[in-house]
Amino acid sequence: MGIIGLDTSHSVAFTKFINGEGNNDEFKDFAVVAAYPYGSRTIKSSYERIPQYIEDVKKEGVEITSSIAELLEKVEYVLLETNDGRVHLEQANEVFKSGKRVFIDKPIGATLAQSIAIFELAKKYHIPVFSSSALRFVPQTLKIRNGEFGNVTGADCYSPHKHEPTHPDFGFYGLHGVETLFTVMGTGCVEVNRMSSPDNTDVVVGKWKDGRIGTFRGIQKGRQLYGGTAFTDKEAVPVGTYDGYQNLLVE
Hints:
- The protein has two domains: about 1-130, NAD(P)-binding Rossmann-like Domain (Rossmann fold); about 135-245, Dihydrodipicolinate Reductase, domain 2.
- Helix content is about 30%, strand content about 25%.
- The protein contains nine helices and twelve strands.
- Strand 4, helix 5 and strand 5 (about 100-105) form a beta-alpha-beta unit.
- The longest helix is centred in the middle third of the chain and has 14 residues, at about 110-125.
- The radius of gyration is 19 Å and the shape is globular.
- The mean pLDDT is about 90.
């Protein structure tokens, strides 16, 4: 396996887990063997981390390549981890042309148009592609989705919401909580209203086509929390909080 983008902590965490830290049978036939560091070149909070993350993955036996093309010669599968969604379309296109399967970490793209274009290219080249927040696969959240606590009648979810000027709204980080909400509610949101307090909180209320209501609170100040409450026809149930990357990696 190869990683594109060492500008996010996900790259180091995924490498350590796949290469042995997890001691998980699902990964016994897999290893991250190469990485191309870039990555964002303009988001300061991202590119400043690259030198340290290069050293971190080297300790896990990962070879650093000078280009995506060089990386693709050494691997069968790709984890596109670049933290800057603006370059995902260009980077993913190079991977698709090589015929390699790819996971694209959040955000899938910096705009809706870019995101759609990525999936259209994947279809053109017949390449399986997958993108998700780790919050989608939290066990408690999946139990709610699968009806173990009854039929979901509504949900209130929250997560940190870090503004990044290069990405629209919740696309850079708030999507974690949005994904939690849609995991328990399913698709079908037809109406959205929003209230915002600058540099404090964003609250979005969605109405689903069957009349159910779901909310997302984007936390900007104070403790950075993930979670929520799902309401069913039987009870109110806590939505699972962040518990690592293992479940996402298994998927």
